Amino acid sequence: MNKITLAIVEDDRNVRQILVGWVSAEPDLQLVSELGDGLEAVKALPRVAPNIVLMDINLPGLTGIECVARLKPALPQTQFLMLTVYEDANHIYNALAAGASGYLMKETRRAELITAIQELHAGGSPMTGSIARKVVRAFQNPSEIAELSPRERQVLDLLAQGYIYKEIADLLQISVSTVNCYIRRVYEKLHVQSRGQAVAKYAQIPSLMARAKS
Q1: What is the rounded end-to-end Cα distance, in angstroms, of the chain?
Q2: CATH code for the domain in which residue 63 is found
Q3: What 3-state class would DSSP assign to 50?
Q4: Which of 38, 93, 90 lies closest to 64, judged by CA?
Q5: Which residues contact 181 (CB under 8 A, 6 or more apart)?
Q6: What is the residue range of 104's domain?
Q7: What is the distance between the alpha carbons of residues 34 and 180, in angstroms, rounded to a whole number?
Q8: CB under 8 Å to 37, separation ≥6 — which residues?
């Protein structure tokens, strides 16, 4: 089985070393780069083209969001997972609109982070529960929700409650790949261009964005 190649962009040396240790201990993950500066990341990452990048937001040189916006066109197959302390609607929207595919808080535990990396590589969009709830609130346009099947609504409701894909699969007694399929259909029916940019609904539904900020 091919290893998932991964890069870490984090300016806090202590945090970065913790993440390096977690990743290095996993047999199916291969660390290919660790960086502490946004400008360095923009220069270095296209050369190694990792499968996944763990990206902080508050970086010197360029912010993590700016890094994603610059790197995504050059690395369309690379998935960016934001790992940050920011959980306000503006940071969420800007990160996912820039091309990030997942958004986790730095308080995420080791096992949860490793699961999120695997989920992201499998086509999912891992998010901390509170973040997922804000994203799903942005979907609550009645005319669009009406287009969802009962099962799709059920999956979306569990996502809104903060469950990760594997937990949804266990609760509904279906496979994780089936959960991914349902969520992709939900995004399509809600007229979202990509899973990572789902939160762009905030811009289309201002009243719901205001609710999400509260």
Answers
A1: 44
A2: 3.40.50.2300
A3: coil
A4: 38
A5: none
A6: 4-213
A7: 29
A8: 11, 59, 60, 61
Supply the pTM of this predicted model: 0.66
Give the number of domains in the chain.
1
Question: How far does CA 131 lie from the centroid of its chain?
Answer: 10
Other C-beta atoms closer than 10 Å to the C-beta of 142 total 6
CA distance 101 to 24: 22
CB distance 99 to 7 below 8 Å: no
Tell me the C-alpha to C-alpha distance, in Å, between residue 196 and each of 142, 203, 214.
22, 15, 22
- Over residues 69-125, the pLDDT tens digits come to 999 989 989 999 999 888 777 788 788 878 888 888 888 899 999 999 998 888 877
By residue count, the chain amounts to: 214
Q: Which residue has the tokens 């539904």?
A: 205
Q: How many CA atoms lie within 13 A of 130 on its CB side?
A: 13
Tokens of 124: 């999912």
Closest CA to 81 of 18, 124, 138, 36: 124
What is the distance between the alpha carbons of residues 22 and 110, in angstroms, rounded to a whole number?
7
Check if the beta carbon of residue 50 is closer than 8 Å to that of residue 71: no
Which tokens in the block code for residue 29?
């993950």
Contacts of 82 (CB under 8 A, 6+ apart): 55, 56, 57, 64, 68, 95, 100, 102, 103, 104
